[in-house]
Amino acid sequence: MEVVAEHPNELVRDQYLMQVADRCRVDPQQLRSGAWRSWAPGSSGSSRSSVRPGVPSGVGQGVGSTPFVVAGAELEALRLRVHHPDVIADRLQAVFFDDDLCLRAYQALDATATLHDAIAAADPEIADLLQRLAVQDTDDDPDEVIIRLIERAGKRAWAELEREARQSSAPRVTGR
Fold first, then answer.
1. 99-137, pLDDT tens digit by residue?
2. 136 and 79 in contact (C-beta within 8 Å)?
3. What is the DSSP string of 86-133?
4. What's the distance, CA 132 to chain centroid?
5. Residues 6+ apart with CB under 8 A from 35
């Protein structure tokens, strides 16, 4: 990215940035904002200390100082799944979850009959998240949470289609 950032032409620089974003499957806005600097080894960026790349702010610490998201539709859906499984369990799908930790927590809940079984069968990181969700109250409307999850999943799918379209329409360099 440092080489791309040094290019004198802004349009060319942005085209390269889009190619890097597509290949690395990251949001181009993250690269444009310079967030990539904090991901580099040996970086002294303050955001690198506890946040994974791509994880929004509002991060708490789980077992072994593993960060996890403490806000958002995915976590609220899990919270509803823990407290009101009869209302939301049959409406959730794995494709709704983008965050790996939330996806694994959903899968643990989906694979077992009860919260206690999910906690017992899960790895410590997931068990910790499920235990925290169990003691947090929720009053969010399940319909609104599902709508937010579907919107986010749709946006991710759209972004993936755009990436694929840009890569398939990009001129190919051959060794001839």
1. 999 999 999 999 999 999 999 999 999 999 999 999 998
2. yes
3. HHHGGG--GGG--SHHHHHHHHHHHTSSSHHHHHHHS-HHHHHHHHHH
4. 19
5. 47, 53
Burial class (CB in 10 A: 0-12, 13-18, 19+), 11: exposed
Tell me the three-class secondary structure of 123-146, residue by residue. Answer: CHHHHHHHHHHHHCCCCCCHHHHH
Q: Which structure tokens are listed for 175?
A: 């060794």
With beta carbons less than 8 A apart as the criterion, state whether 130 and 108 touch: yes
Give me the residue spans of the domains in the chain: 55-155
Helix (H, G, I), strand (E, B) or coil at 60: strand
Please tell me which of 38-42, 68-72, 136-140, 145-149 the model is most confident about, judged by mean pLDDT.
145-149
